[in-house]
Each structure stands twice: as C-alpha cells, then as structure tokens.
Design goal:
2 domains, six-stranded mixed sheet, alpha+beta, elongated, about 475 residues, Aminopeptidase, Alpha-Beta Plaits, single chain
Length: about 475
C-alpha cells in the first residue's frame, strides 16, 4: 500500500481494512473514526444510530462559501469463497494487487465503501486540498437496509451540498436511484422420519457463480444459485419420491446467490436413473449459462442419511413457492435508456430452527424500483408466491428512491471540473441500486446531491476489485471540485 498513489487515500484504506465492519456490527469502525478525529483535532459528533459526523473549517479564502458534505458508509458486505476461513467479526481483509486492480484474497474487498471513507478522510486532513467548510458523514448499516441514513439525527448536518462517495463507475455522476423493500417468508413444518424402505441420501450443490450486486448486476444474465438448485429439485421431485432434509442457498439480501445446496432422500433402487437425469439437466444448465456464468458447477453426491425429513406435501409446497417466486429484471425504464426500472432478488433460502425446536425454511428477497407503485406491485407478487408455502410473510419498511435533479448547481460544477481535467464529458445517469440520498432528502428536502466514485467490479462478491488508476482520477476530480466550490 505504501507505494500506491494517491498515498493519502490508499494509506487510509489499508488502515480501514484492518478493522472488522460487517453490516450491523460497526462498533469497531465507528470507534476508529472517532479516534481518528481526536488524533487530528477534528470536531466529531455521533448520533444514537452510531453515525459519525466530522467537521473542519474552510481553508483560508473559502470562509464565505457554502459548506460541502462528503458522505460514505461504514459497513461492508461480507462474502467469502467456500473454504475461506476468515472471520469477518475479528480478522482483517487481506488485500492483493494485480496490475491496476486491487482485490481481496477469497473475500469481498470492502472498497464498497471503504474507499469512499478514505477519500473523505483524506479531504479532511490533506494540506493540499482547498475547500469550503467541510463535513464528512459516515453512516452505518447501508448494505442491509440503509438504517443509518434512516435514523440520522435531525439537524446534525449543517451543509446543504452533499457528495456521496458510494458510486462504482469511473466518470459517472449519479443523480438518482431506485427505492427498495425487503420481503421475508417463513415456512414452518413438522419433520418426519423416512418411510420404511431403502433410501439414498444425496447432496445437490450449485456453485461457481459470479453473484454480484442485486441492483447493479441484476440485468447481466447471471444465474441465481437458489433458482438453479430449485430447478434440479423439481426435476427429481417430479420423477420420484424425494424427501427434502435441508436447503441452504445465498447469503445477503443485496447479493445475487452464488452457491446453494440441498440434502434429499430418494429410493435407493432409482439411483442410476437419477444420476443420468441429473447429469442431463446439469449439462443443459451449464450450456444455457455458458456466456454469463462460465464457471458454474453442478454436482450430486451421496451423503449420510438424515434423521428427519420434510413430508412430500411440504416439499411440494416449498418447491412451488421457490419456482413461482420471481427473480431478476422485471421491467426496463420507459424514461431513461438502459436503466432497469424494477427487479427482484431471491437472495437466500435457509433451513433453520426456532428456539423452541420447530424447524422452518426462511426465504429472503429484495425488491427495487425507481417507481414507487411498481416497487409495491413486485412486492405483492413476491408475497403471493411465497404464500404458496409460507405461513408468515413480512416486509421491511423499505426506503425511498432518489428523484433526479438535472438542474443541480453541484452537478454543473462537477461536470465542469471533469471536462476541464479530462477533456471529455462525464456520464450523468440514474442507477438501479439503492443509495442513501433518497433518505437524506426526507430529512433535508433542500439538499443538493450527487454521487461519484472510482471504478469497481463485482462488488458484493469475492471477485470485488478496485481500479487503482480510477481511484487516483476520482481523487483528483474530487479535489478540483472542492476547490471550485
């Protein structure tokens, strides 16, 4: 890290990646930020949600200019490859560099949004950065519900111009985003012993998928491991008596499921026919996803017989719900070219046990749309699908979208600085991912906001990588913008 430019940014990123910061567990990073402020004699306040706000005065000559807020989120998505032993609650992120790309070893990198934090802190502390009165807002729990932004203390921000540093595309200025809402289904069932007879237990597994961000990558044709596994299960269920024992797939609500597996029991005498069936279907699946998911791997192997299984009736209900539950892009925007308007992500399916010992299946989904009515329409669609199996279907509070403001003075300044620096036009657009800006608008309706950031790929997956040269470019752009403001 000591040799990578800009040093003032990457040195801070290296420090931040030593600090565990899973969503909903930001205690360590919040404390580190407060200690950082104290060490640099920076004014610092926190609210009851653990959001951190730092403030520095304007550099000489900028005292009469309106202040600017730099904003990033403290938490990171914690995804890892199978076999990776990192403990996200205690271990640092192990980074590596390959040419222009920085990545992590077997895990997400945390550049989303650790690099945003690093740029904001560098702007607060670097002596060569000219700026008006500057605030830095570091929110918690952005990745699993934007709850830090939602619970931000009223009146804690002084400025009315905000640069969000949570974008992932070089040379892009985001001026709008989708709103979202999560749905959770629970299917309780009564387990039973296997009927009399000779049974074979099988583990069906799907892995090797790229996964990715459920907003940014939802229209790229990437397979969802939960959906692929469901396809195999229904094919076997339709051909024989198949009893489901356990199912586990996916992880976070805003990540496309990369891996899934299930343990099932089938008649022993049908093992050869089922092996042939599975191999045929696996070959078909791999052919379908050859372009978008070239490393997909589908396997079936024997395992130990479980003590209990789900009944055939309950298995049928669950498979019906998972088959009907939508996943992927639902509708493209009719107003903005190439923008996904509405989508849904079948994020995770897990066998679990209540404290009283009752088993259940938990199904998590997340819905997004830039149109509020469409967001609730797809939410209802998901609820009806899950209700085929689930005795409980609940929804989160959701979060609003961010309506674009094409007449933003802050946007005009950033466009002008980009053109002056790089002799080209930045791309101004709205995105399908969720950003905290919509929630800031509910508390500060007069806030002028844009979102920028360096080039990243495959965020929310262990393939996440950050462009070093794009980070340097974005840092130069941010410094020039602050000076112009």
């Amino acid at each position: 890290m000591n040799t990578i430019e800009p040093r003032e940014v990457f040195d801070l990123f290296a420090q931040i990646n030593q600090i565990p910061r899973p969503s909903k567990h930001e205690e360590k990073i919040s404390r580190w930020l407060q200690n950082f402020a104290a060490a640099h004699n920076i004014e610092c306040v926190t609210d009851n949600a653990m959001n951190v706000v730092m403030r520095v005065p304007a550099t000489p000559g900028y005292e009469d200019h309106p202040g600017v807020i730099l904003q990033a989120h403290q938490d990171m998505v914690c995804e890892k490859d199978a076999g990776c032993t990192i403990d996200f609650m205690n271990d640092p992120i192990r980074t590596a560099v390959d040419g222009d790309w920085m990545h992590a070893m077997g895990t997400t990198l945390g550049a989303d949004d650790g690099i945003g934090i690093s740029m904001a802190l560098a702007a607060l502390t670097s002596p060569d950065v000219k700026h008006p009165r500057l605030e830095a807002l570091f929110t918690v729990d952005e990745e699993t519900g934007l709850t830090g932004a939602d619970r931000l203390q009223e009146g804690i921000l002084q400025g009315r111009r905000l640069i969000n540093l949570d974008n992932e595309d070089d040379g892009h200025i985001c001026i709008g985003c989708a709103g979202g809402i999560d749905s959770l289904g629970r299917m309780h069932y009564t387990p039973q012993a296997l009927p009399e007879g000779k049974w074979l237990a099988l583990t069906l597994r799907v892995d090797g998928l790229p996964g990715g961000h459920s907003g940014e990558d939802i229209n790229k044709g990437r397979a969802n491991a939960n959906k692929v596994l469901t396809y195999f299960l229904t094919e076997i269920f339709d051909s024989t008596d198949m009893y489901l024992a356990t199912i586990h797939g996916g992880n976070l609500r805003n990540a496309i499921a990369r891996e899934a597996e299930a343990v099932v029991c089938v008649p022993f005498e049908e093992r050869e026919q089922l092996r042939i069936l599975f191999n045929e279907r696996a070959a078909q699946v791999e052919a379908v996803y050859q372009a978008s998911n070239p490393d997909i791997h589908c396997q079936m192997q024997t395992t130990a017989l479980p003590d209990e299984v789900m009944s055939l009736k309950d298995t049928s209900r669950l498979l019906a719900a998972l088959t009907v539950c939508p996943h992927g892009m639902i509708r493209m925007s009719q107003d903005i070219p190439d923008l996904v308007e509405t989508s849904t992500n079948l994020a995770s399916v897990h066998s679990k046990v209540e404290p009283d010992g009752r088993p259940y299946i938990e199904i998590n989904t997340s819905q997004r749309s830039s149109i509020e009515a469409q967001k609730h329409r797809i939410k209802n669609h998901v609820e009806y699908a899950l209700s085929l199996a689930c005795d409980q279907v609940t929804h989160g509070e959701g979060y609003p979208g961010w309506a674009p403001n094409v007449n933003s003075p802050l946007l005009d300044t950033m466009v002008a600085q980009y053109k002056a620096l790089f002799k080209s036009e930045p791309k101004v657009l709205a995105i399908h991912a969720g950003l905290e800006c919509g929630l800031f608008l509910t508390k500060y309706p007069d806030m002028d906001m844009i979102s920028v950031g360096p080039q990243m790929y495959d965020v929310h997956s262990p393939k996440e990588r950050l462009s070093i040269s794009s980070t340097a470019k974005t840092w130069q752009w941010l410094k020039a913008t602050l000076a112009a403001l």
